[in-house]
Design goal:
Length: 118
């Protein structure tokens, strides 16, 4: 499993940024970093990801974070290798095979345990 995926799940579960996310936490702040990680994990962990005709994260620029997540991905080399953007979506990079999508999907579903805010 790619280190950046491990770090995203660990950050969401513990609030502690791992090696691949530490610099971006400083640049974007913990709250925005958490938002970006939640969006990516929600997309990657969808129960229908592998069967979907639309296996991507929609990006219609309706929300302010959508412009920022592009900058976030650009700032994390390991993430930049994993995903790419077009006008309307964030999707797995062409080099990423469906077997890796499936491994990420299964890992997220098994290990992402969102904390409830009180």
């Amino acid at each position: 499993m790619r280190k950046v995926v491990l770090d995203i799940v660990a950050f969401l579960n513990t609030g502690i940024a791992g090696d691949t996310l530490r610099a971006t936490e400083h640049d974007f702040g913990s709250q925005d970093l958490r938002l970006f990680c939640v969006e990516l994990a929600s997309w990657w962990g969808r129960s229908t990801l592998m069967q979907s005709r639309h296996p991507y994260l929609g990006m219609r620029n309706d929300f302010p974070w959508q412009g920022q997540i592009r900058k976030f991905v650009e700032s994390v080399p390991e993430l930049k290798q994993l995903v790419c953007f077009d006008e309307e979506s964030c999707r797995f990079a062409e080099e990423i095979g469906r077997d890796e999508w499936e491994a990420i999907n299964e890992f997220i579903r098994a290990n992402h345990k969102p904390r409830l805010c009180s």
